[in-house]
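Blinded run. Sample ID left blank on purpose so nobody reads anything into the name before looking at the predicted structure. Input follows.
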Amino acid sequence: MTAIIDYDAGNIRSVEKALAAIGEEAVVTRDAEELLKAERVILPGVGSFGDAMRKLEEFQLTEVIREIVQRGTPFLGICLGLQLLFEESEESPGVKGLGILPGKILRIPDNEGLKVPHMGWNSLDFPREGKLFAGIKEGSYVYFVHSYYLKAAKEDIVTATADYGVKVHASVEAGNVFACQFHPEKSSDVGLAILHNFVQIRA
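Blinded prediction complete.
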């Protein structure tokens, strides 16, 4: 069973529907006990970094998330959920992220001919092998919606990148922690395959 963290962010129900499409039982919850006993946990989200951290604090979920990660439970951050795993974001100066992984979230720089937010399909490059991308061809397209991007402090955790006038660290893996800047739940068959790969991971 997969638990989806409910902190009043956007995009949670579409993740639940995508899991249902691959036959995975999911529960949307902010109950600490339920989250801690789940086989795997997903932190999705659309919205601003600062508001999301405030809600995680308000619902007393920050320490729960850290405990889930420390227990070795497979954990997946999606879009804003990826960004929150890192230390800070230019979107919300002075607001600390969860700090589970080292790195910063930066604004996508203005480039002639490229709109911000980055919205639409973009291909992935695989700088190193990642469990989420088993059986998925390099160059596959996935769906992005974001104005800020990850610059991980350690390149060795980056398993997928995308080019949008800057190299976007599009996916990371570090032990039991996985994250995607793009939306697998909106990325057609490729996205469902990524989610399927995640739910096959065992603690």
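Unblinding after everyone has recorded impressions. The mean pLDDT is 97.
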